[in-house]
Amino acid sequence: MTVEEIAKKIGKSASRVYKVLDRRDEEQCVEPRKSRGRPSELSARVILRMGALTSSLKSTIRRALYEAGGNNRVAQLKPILS
């Protein structure tokens, strides 16, 4: 099976298939690498909880954000004085 056929079958680009095959040859592994960068501050539980609140009232969402340590305010701009 050619790389192009594999790419078409799985719905990815041929360059992506080549990258996976090269990684397999180098590291003898096709598992995804550990994500890099700063981890999210929100846990999966909090995200699910906030998703459940989206159908609730705005005040409920604001209260939940406040209890979680956040707020939903924007700083007021000072007037421009000439």
UniProtKB/TrEMBL annotation:
Taxonomic path: Eukaryota, Fungi, Fungi incertae sedis, Mucoromycota, Mucoromycotina
Protein name according to UniProt: Resolvase HTH domain-containing protein
Domain of life: Eukaryota
